[in-house]
Every structure is written in structure tokens, then in C-alpha cells.
Please model this.
Amino acid sequence: MLYGSETWCLRESEMAILRRTERAMVRVMCGAKLMEKKRTEDLMEMLGLKETAVQMAKANGVRWYGHVLRRDDGHALRKALEFEVRGKRKRGRPKKTWKMQVEKESKSVGLVKKIP
Model:
């Protein structure tokens, strides 16, 4: 379900889809029906799951960002990370980039970027 999540830039609607899918999968694994009114958190505890799919997707992105930062300055991934497009943008709010999202998430967790 999280294949390729290292480079996702999750929107609220996509996070909601992940949560719904995860809840449905947990219910199927436990054999619980919706009519039984069991909480998903309790079912996840029964299975021994501690992290949700959304948390794992965000963690994968931060981990991949660390790999990219440790690359040499001449490497293609590092060049792509620092690349800026010239020219005018369309009107309105700028698009949220993967780099901006990962930096925000790593700050919220308390990770600090240290480059030797």
C-alpha cells in the first residue's frame, strides 16, 4: 500500500483515502464487521500495529530525504533537489513541493539538517 511513498506529497484527501483503506484492511484482518461497532484503534492493538499508514508514509519521505542529502553535490538526485525552474509562475498560491513538505515534517519531529 505504501510502495513509492518516499516521494509522495500527501494532500488531506489522499491522507483520508489512506486512513479509510487502512481501517478497512484492519477490519478484514480481524474479521470484524462494521455493525459490531469495534474501534479501529482496539483492532490495531489486537494485531500489534502501532503506526498508521499516514505516519509511515511521512516517515518514509523523511528517511529518503536523508539519503538524498548524504549524496555528493554532483549526483543527479542532489542536483534535482536543488533545481529551480526559471520563469513566471501562474497566479495563486505556489504549489507545495515534496522538499517543502519533508522539511516541515522533519522540523515538527525535531530533526535538524546538518551538512558537513
